[in-house]
Protein 1
Amino acid sequence: MIVTRFAPSPTGLLHLGSAHAALFAWRRARAAGGRFLLRIEDIDTQRCRPEYTTAILEDLAWLGLDWDGEVRVQSEHVAEYDAVIADLASRGLAYHCWCSRTDIEAHASAPHGPEGPVYPGTCRHLSHADQAAREGEKFAWRLDMRHALQQCGPLPRDPRPFGDVVIGRKHTPGSYHLCVTHDDAVQGVTLVTRALDLEPATAVHNLLQALMGWPVPDYAFHQLLTNADGTRLAKRDRAVGIRALREDGHSPAAVRAMAGFADPA
Ligand code: GLU
């Protein structure tokens, strides 16, 4: 059975772009008699707000979407992400990194990767004494990409351009890559749908699946809705917000059409 999901981060209200993503996943599930799940990706507690979660669920229901089972909320599953990081670390595949973004940018040989400068590996081989000296300071957990690749067979996509990606941080649970991949696996998602701009990141997810023995779902990538001038829709732009379109008297069907999913005639 096909299982899809919509996984918004509650950093703002639902807008036409996120409604497009939700409708894309919902239609794929419903057309095939499958399940459609909802997951709130709120691990970034600095930027996420519970009132946005409430508003997103309400706007989705107003748009006519229904979902199966309980909504999964990532901030309630921190121990699970910690356990994945501990597992990778115990196999020598993850290490502590104390470098700031500025440190990394200042490194002359850092090539540019899909997420900015590629980590030059400064902290990969720190001695125990050097590590002990940093005890108590903030750090990030990084995946040792080269070592990780030696532990798995051929992958559907090449994660090497990402270098040693961040998979977690002190005081915060896993990174986006780690949590999204873990949750798609535990929720039994068979078709991950996401915007085309996240296609490259999928290579990192495929690597984590191989390392952790998680199933590899199918993927479908959708367009990013843009403004008439081709610029990206912004969550703070009232004109494209579902809330505002509701208040302005548009019907759910009209808003679905604006989000690229007109009802069949
Ligand atoms: N939470 C992610 C976002 O809002 C999307 C999850 C995914 O499909 O990877 O962009």
Protein 2
Amino acid sequence: MSLENFSIIESTLREGEQFVNTFFTQDQKIEIARLLDEFGVEYLELTTPQASPQSERDCVAIANLGLNAKIVTHTRCTLEDVKRAVDTGVDGVDVVIGTSSQLRNFSHGKSVPEIIELAQEVFGYLKSQNVEMRFSTEDSLRSDPQDLYAVYEAVDAIGINRVGIADTVGIGTPMQVYNLVSELRKRVKADIEFHGHNDTGCAIANAYAALEAGATHVDTSVLGIGERNGITPLGGLIARLYAINPVLVAKYNLLLLVELDQRIAELVQVDIPFNNYITGFSAFTHKAGIHAKAILNNPSTYEVLSPEDFGLTRYINIAHRLTGWNAIKYRAEQLGLDLSDSHIKHITKEVKRNSDERPLTLDDVDTILYREYHQQIEGTKTNQPVSMAGD
Ligand code: HCA
Ligand code: CU
């Protein structure tokens, strides 16, 4: 299992550029690259220089920033493309070609032996160029496994660094990915990369299954942006691994995740989904009275991720009919109101009664708390000796 020693290939600047709303200027790409580098991802994958003159200039600019992350660019499996990629000064080239019958017949039209021949030509050249070499098969999950193994074994024999599995259409299940990576692990010496789309909601689980089966590299993008509904999100992968053991992601600067998600959301003009991993607005909000009580005693009761490790705080929502008196008591303490338990229980009933009629805000609860507090003081005063009444 490579869980202790995996790398992230961050593809916001490649797959993320394929998201419908994305238009990154060079300055924005550089800003994103620097932020991801500071976060600590091991690789940044960039759009092929073959896409457009600006894409080529962006590759050159980012390859020359002197970042810690390795800079790799994506290319088709042609000599022309990889030559152009190498000329930009990147550290590595991520070559990809479709192997499913769908793509072989309707995209590039090549047979499996032709794919192998092409790959041999392309990597024959790259070998002399002192760059990291990766070969990936597009639509791997719908490819015939025998075709895949034939192609991967041929490129492995050339001595490339990594082979990649791509669930291009998001059809794979964790079990399928696990089995495919396990089999591949037995057949090749190269590192194994997994790239998974999220069409059916399995992108994070599939990436995790790949790591469990021996994959060494996982592709992500910030917020998961990419073609259609995107790929494994960086934050989601981090959440998944952190929940196994925070040590696994201790090499990353987790405090930057919020800024990354917010900045990308802003640049591509989307809201961070309410249910997003870690940075969604309700990710650390607790509501039901039973949850609130336990969380107040010990946050691990209902939290597998500690918000403070991501620079965030938990929030306990108390203004609703599911509330409980422990949560109301906690709020009274926050406000510095010393109320007896019987008062708190009485207030809790009132909050529930009110919230059966209309949605309440925290202000409403606070108003009830203050009113009850003053009534309690008044009550205490009238019971007190006359000499102390004016204190
Ligand atoms: C695509 C290509 C790709 C490539 C993945 C890879 C995919 O845009 O269709 O290079 O590993 O999902 O297959 O993103
Ligand atoms: Cu993709």
Protein 3
Amino acid sequence: MSSSAITPWVVGNWKMNPMQADAQQLIQSFKQQLQQAPLSAAQCHIAVAPIALHLLTVQQQLADAAVPVAVVAQDVSRQAGTGAYTGEISAELLKDSGIDTVLIGHSERRELFADTSVVVAEKVKNALNAGLRVIYCVGESLAQREEGLANQVVLQQICDIARVVQAEQWAQIVIAYEPIWAIGTGKTASPEDAQAMHAAIREGLAQITAYAAKMPILYGGSVKADNALQLAACKDINGALVGGASLDAQSFYQIATAFAQTK
Ligand code: 13P
């Protein structure tokens, strides 16, 4: 199966943004864009990842959007179930509230919040076992790329979760390749470099799972309306994980359109 048969995903990671009123405005504007020119869900899966506090409100506000827009959690606890874990939200609690997808392993969590490979693997295991879909983020630093270690680092991050993912659970995983040096910097990986890494990821996945050819591999790192088409044209880039540009309704809509129409 060619990877071009994969329905693309365009996911807005709002990170620790925006204030409530701005979030409402953003959703309204995005819904208007979708109303004027709907994208079919068969062309593109669209999702947004607001702060935990806003997950359910955003979900309600998007319920009447012209096309389905999924709401994704930005993180999940390493603890499963319920219990005395102050401040935590488990995979089961997300699922129980109707949140079906979670980002795990974002570089900001790995770098700033001690999400080591062990922690990330626990989160992935718990999320999958609770029936969530996982958007698993991988990516190398600038120093690692300059030392020629990018492929090794990224493939190791895939291997880190391989021991906790059961054979059929790979169907519930979306990979997001986000080179750290491209996040929030305005420096996008060139389409050639991004495609080369995505192909390497798919090859690596093929050694681990029979689902490799069907797995969406998203690119993230300064994706904007004006570079989305070039990225979408790459064979193994099956969508985008968008930070800054997802806080602008028109930009986010244009990025989704670029992937929906190119794939
Ligand atoms: P930017 O699009 O702002 O570079 O952020 C990318 C990202 O980290 C998405 O998860």
Protein 4
Amino acid sequence: MATWIRNGRLADTITGVFEEKDLIIEGKRIEKIIPRGQFSEGGESLDIIEADGMLVLPGLIDMHVHLREPGEEYKETIQTGCLAAVAGGFTAVACMPNTIPPNDCRSVTEFILEQAMRAGLARVYPIAAITMGRKGTVMAEFGDLKAAGAVGLSDDGSPVADSGIMRCALEYSRYYDLKVISHCEDLRLSEGGVMHEGEISTRIGLPGIPSAAEEVMVHRDICLSELTGCPVHIAHVSSAGSVELIRRAKDKGLPVTAETTPHYLTLDHSSVIGYDTSAKVNPPLRTREDVEAVRKGLAEGVIDVIVTDHAPHSSLEKELEFDKAASGMIGLQSALPLVLSLVDEGCLSLSRAVQKMTIAPARVLGVEGGHLREGSPADVTIVDTDARYVFSRDMILSKSRNTPFLGREMKGIAHLTMIGGRVVWQRKASHPGS
Ligand code: DOR
Ligand code: ZN
């Protein structure tokens, strides 16, 4: 039976225009896109999805999440992570390889894909490790990993400290058409630090991580991209200096792309004043000036993609003294409303925001999706931009609850998420904002 999504405002992520158009979905694909009011039902029976007053977007794509499986299933599983993803409006997630064991070989990549298939929720794209064990010394088998289904390479959680290895990785990755996603951190500069190094770290007596720990490596990777002519994608940009370096690299025409997260766009280091470990992330939340610079970089196209860096941790790793707690926060269910609030504040246009969560990540990773087109898979997210609610613990579908956004007033929510023509998430009448 065909499905008719009607009366919504459809986002064309190529032109950046919203149009009053309906979608007809037949099986797994978009059969037709037609102007509102021009479709007549005929004799056939149809499933009707009413999107009146809502946005109809290509399924959101998050190219940076941690699903913790294999190895740390008490924090998250592929199933729970995917459930949080679809509830947050994401139809696809790319998962980082810092699992136990790390995704540095074919069997782990295949296991992740099998578990994703079993979960039957979001599409899962494995990112494989650049180096064996993510130890930074011996390169992984890129060809094997690609054949098994990996779509990118990263040692995320750790940098590739050895510049010679990074150079080789960039050169080999191009051969296999796998994007290298770089976690930029100079470990000698960040050593011992637990928050941003600045006025607040001095005041509350916590050891700091200077912005330079990130920027030195952003600069190195840009130099290596220039040396090799190979693309590099900079993960979780948090500082004004990094934005400036990437801006200059792009001005030179280098194949550098970058991402940031809703938390670097929203929070600064003052969130740490109460020693709230849910605000402990790596790289750390920085100053208000950094937040403003990252916002500007996003609006001006220096930063291409918005990701969550969804990093679940249990209370065992978080309910500790600040310096002993793990870094990371969950983000799959708070990303969309936080980005919509940036739009409301005038930081960037709605169409730009949508592009950075759809077509931009699809292009960086070279995967399908990100655009609603006749004949393409019916991955669709319907967003109710007017829904107002307080982000609360009982909404969280992730196994972990480590987020500093609990209790925050939110506006906008995923109303319905469809993957390959199948509705995998629908907001219930009892849900907040309904
Ligand atoms: O805060 C972080 N958490 N930063 C990382 O780079 C890794 C991540 C994790 O895996 O928990
Ligand atoms: Zn990460």
